[in-house]
Design goal:
Elements lengths: L1 H21 L30 E7 L11 H13 L3 E3 L5 E4 L3 E4 L5 H12 L7 E6 L3 E6 L4 E6 L7 H7 L7 E10 L6 E5 L4 H4 L11 E6 L3 H30 L1
Parallel strand pairs: 6-10
Antiparallel strand pairs: 1-2, 1-5, 3-4, 6-7, 8-9, 8-10
């Protein structure tokens, strides 16, 4: 009877303390009545934003010199160009300062449109200018396994969808909830929070959601209370076992 009461007491303690004791790393929890942001399909285009760092390659004659890689001299020039590349950051007011062009507003523009705009400005000084922009500091952060695992994933030139980010992180784990994936975007004080359910095909249609720089993806996980409870009490069970063994040895020797 005492053993049964002790077991029931352990179960009760488990139920009362599970959230804080057994899941201390859980992040971004929401209330049951929390209203998630409405899904909006996003195109696979790169829109320049404030604080983007731009690597800008500028050349004349439609970029002909960039293709000069024949011979040692051409390879030396190409290497020198790569070594001399400078990044330019878009300010909070969407303005970026670029040599020859000066201050110009690129924030909010699609990358292709920004390249054409710079080519138009450079055409005032150079013949048939060529411009190639690369954003170098765009990343998203993905957390799973109750926040114990996190990965920073770079957004490539062609953009990155939610499913591609999960694949780059190695896919979901055995404890991941495919029907409860949060995506947090925007200012920390008032972010947009989306919830994705890729367990069914209807949710899969929304999973092509294109990610933006600094997006946070959080994959909820099953709690696994039993395994964690055993792990928590394992040191105490070891101590009890050792004490029992020592007691048995001394008790045997005393007889």
């Amino acid at each position: 009877m005492k053993r049964i009461l002790l077991l029931l007491g352990c179960v009760a303690c488990l139920g009362l303390t599970s959230c804080k004791v057994f899941r201390p790393t859980v992040m971004f929890q929401t209330n049951k009545d929390f209203k998630f942001s409405e899904f909006e399909e996003s195109p696979r285009v790169t829109v320049l934003q404030p604080f983007d760092q731009l690597e800008v390659i500028m050349s004349t004659n439609n970029g002909y010199l960039l293709l000069e890689t024949e011979g040692n001299e051409g390879q030396r020039v190409a290497r020198q160009r790569n070594d001399d590349l400078i990044t330019y950051m878009i300010r909070q007011d969407s303005i970026v300062k670029i040599p020859t062009v000066g201050e110009i507003k690129l924030g909010g523009m699609q990358k292709d449109s920004a390249e054409r705009l710079l080519e138009q400005e450079l055409a005032k000084y150079y013949q048939a200018p060529f411009v190639k922009i690369t954003v170098t500091n765009r990343n998203v952060i993905l957390f799973y396994d109750e926040g114990t695992v996190g990965k920073k994933i770079s957004i490539p030139e062609g953009g990155l969808s939610l499913l591609e980010a999960i694949a780059d992180a190695g896919g979901l784990t055995e404890s991941s909830k495919s029907y409860k994936i949060k995506l947090i975007r925007g200012n920390n004080k008032n972010p947009n929070v989306y919830n994705f359910n890729i367990r069914n095909l209807e949710g899969f249609k929304k999973a092509n959601f294109m990610l933006e720089a600094n997006d946070i993806i959080y994959v909820d996980s099953r709690p696994r209370y039993a395994a964690k409870f055993i792990k928590q009490i394992e040191p105490y069970l070891t101590m009890i076992t050792c004490a029992t063994t020592v007691y048995a040895i001394f008790n045997t020797q005393s007889k």
